[in-house]
Fold this sequence. Notes:
Layout: H1 2-9, H2 30-50, E1 54-57, H3 61-67, E2 79-83, E3 89-93, E4 108-112, H4 118-126, E5 133-136, H5 142-151, E6 156-159, H6 161-168, H7 173-193, H8 203-216, E7 220-228, E8 249-258, E9 261-262, E10 265-271, H9 276-294, H10 302-315, E11 327-329, E12 336-340, E13 353-356, E14 359-362, E15 366-369, E16 372-377, E17 380-383, E18 392-394
Bound molecules: glycine (GLY) and manganese (II) ion (2 copies).
Amino acid sequence: MLESALRVLDTGRDRVEIIPTRRTEMATTAAELGIYADRLRRAQEELVRQGVDLLLVGPSSDFRYLTGHDAHLSERLTLLLLPREGNPTVVVPVLEAPTVADRRDLVDVHTWEETQAPSDLVATLAGDVAGKTVAVGDQLWSVFLLRLQAAMPGATWISATPTMRTLRMIKDFPELELLQDAARRTDDAWEEFITQPLAGQTEREALERLSALTRQRGLAGAWGLCASGPNSASPHHATSDRVIQPGDAVIFDWGGTIEGYYSDVTRTVHVGEPSDEFRRVYDIVYSANQATLDAVRPGVPCEALDEAARDLIAGEGYGAAFLHRVGHGLGLDVHEEPYLVAGNDLPLRAGMVFSDEPGIYLEGRFGVRIEDAVLCTDTGGERLNNATRELIIVG
Ligand code: GLY
Ligand code: MN
Ligand code: MN
């Protein structure tokens, strides 16, 4: 299915010709560096288009997106400087210079010694910024931003979100492959997990078994939650030692990463025979998940997807119990642009990947959420997750 979706996306700019073949080794071949050189070049085009003179990005998913380097976030400043013209530069503490040695064909590298002030080095490299516009990545710690602002007077400081989201919202071919791969493996872990009973296990034990199966399928950074019985009415419940019992709804919301790209799936199951109301709520959420998918098309505003789910749920009388937006972008961050929420009139574009996750939460009783990752293609939505969405009753 993705193959056909990707063919639809094969429209020049979005298609990167050379795909690394041995991803797990992260060999920095010329081909791989070419992907990042292309992203840096497109970021510079965006800086020109948006009237930005200099982009500053600390260790973050933005840094990784632009350079391929998963930079170490710490009290020592590491920073990417991308001027609208000229070479990208990475400033890095000298003890971490070896970690960027394989990026020297991509970026200039400047190191700072333990007793130096890295913000002064950045100011020197940036030159006179008086009257210029500096965009700052949204994950740069405030301590660094404050020091940089003091060292670089006269600039106008803005958020880099408009620049970075323009690039990152539209996934290129290697990114789509990784997201598809992560989704498939996560589905696969679920199919094995849900063959076993849950009653008698704690939420923590059940989640650990699912996480282990997810890791066994090659995903790193396994994360998630398990919410059982009344806890399932809390959308972001902190997994506890509550023992899962017959009569419980149980929500699993989990995933992992492949080369930094996330999966994010939710399935709700029932332990033993459910009530008529649970079945009804499940069917409503199931239909809302489908209605959201059906609304996906390039040009449709993000908020229309939320509306599709919300109208359906409200029409069944549960509007007040749908406590969150219907979805969020998925990529190097588990929550990223675009956000599918009322008030966001950003038009969907082919290549966007986002969650489709309507839910109904009845306080003190139970909740239901069904979540898949969805790719927007030229012709509509394609699910990246295909683990069964039919109601599963477990022991
Ligand atoms: N998991 C729902 C949200 O964060 O919007
Ligand atoms: Mn989720
Ligand atoms: Mn999600």
